[in-house]
Specification:
CATH class: Alpha Beta
Number of strands: 4
Distance between the termini: 42 Å
Number of helices: 6
Shape: globular
Low-confidence stretches: 4-9, 18-37
CATH architecture: 3-Layer(aba) Sandwich
Oligomer: single chain
Largest sheet: 4 strands, mixed
Helix content: 40-55%
Radius of gyration: 15 Å
Strand content: 15-25%
């Protein structure tokens, strides 16, 4: 019974964090995220739609804090990159399609020799970002450190 309730809560949360009108409000003032081969680096990609719940905002806030505090030098030299991508903007449609993102999501991507591998941390993020932010931050930091090796 508890599992059923948990599944329903997660489904409702993901639905609430969905795209909700992607492509309706086209704004050209947002920097376009382009798909291109990167130099050797690790990217932390936070995707969100127009409407965001408290958990979605906690994912962005805590992921960004973790990266900025633990990888300041790497952010400066481009070895680590943090991007927030609004999937409701038409200019971000290509990158959202590449990662098959339809609602708030967190990905960590490793670029080596022009090839990308990535991991979807969305489930982990929704489970921990709001209720256990220190655990969430530690997990993100550990994942980025592992990929930097």
């Amino acid at each position: 019974m508890n599992r059923l309730i948990l599944v329903l809560v997660i489904c409702c949360g993901l639905t609430a964090c969905g795209n909700n009108g992607a492509g309706k409000n086209r704004s050209a003032d947002v920097e376009q995220i382009q798909l291109q081969e990167q130099e050797n680096c690790v990217e932390v990609l936070y995707f969100h739609g127009k409407r965001r719940c408290a958990t979605c905002m906690a994912i962005e806030k805590n992921a960004k804090e973790a990266i900025e505090t633990q990888f300041a030098d790497e952010l400066k030299n481009g070895t680590v990159v943090f991007k927030t991508i609004d999937i409701s903007k038409p200019e971000n449609e290509t990158v959202a399609n590449k990662y098959e993102v339809a609602w708030s999501s967190l990905f960590v991507s490793k670029w080596r020799d022009g090839k990308e591998t990535y991991e979807n941390l969305t489930e982990y993020a929704f489970a921990n970002a709001k209720t256990a932010p220190d655990t969430f931050k530690s997990g993100v930091i550990e994942k980025v450190r592992t990929l930097l090796e």
